[in-house]
Amino acid sequence: MNKPPIGASPEWYVLPHRIKYLADAISMYTAHERIGSDKEVTSVMRKWATEIICHCDTLDRLQDLKEDNK
């Protein structure tokens, strides 16, 4: 995937990159020293995971729309 030109970026570029960014953040937080003793750490990770699910659902729905328009 090539980066789109300056301006509004399409979903095929933005959503996968956001998913990767969130997944990397979750991965880093798993090494956090307070992960087993602080609900704040797992709460943040849970929010990011929920956002990943939402982005995956959006990508699936967009794919469905593209297939319907063929």
Structure in words:
By secondary structure, this protein is mainly α. The protein is built from 2 helices and no strands. Helix 1 runs antiparallel to helix 2. The radius of gyration is 16 Å and the shape is elongated. It starts with 10 loop residues before the first helix and ends with a helix. The relative contact order is 0.12. The mean pLDDT is about 90.
Structural class: mainly alpha
Beta-strand percentage range: under 5%
| Count, helices | 2
Q: Could you describe the largest sheet, including whether it forms a barrel?
A: none
Mean pLDDT: 89
Describe the global form.
elongated
Radius of gyration: 16 Å
- Count the E strands: 0
Distance between the termini: 23 Å
Low-confidence stretches: none
Query: Would you list the SSEs in sequence order as H and E?
Result: HH
Percent helix range: over 70%
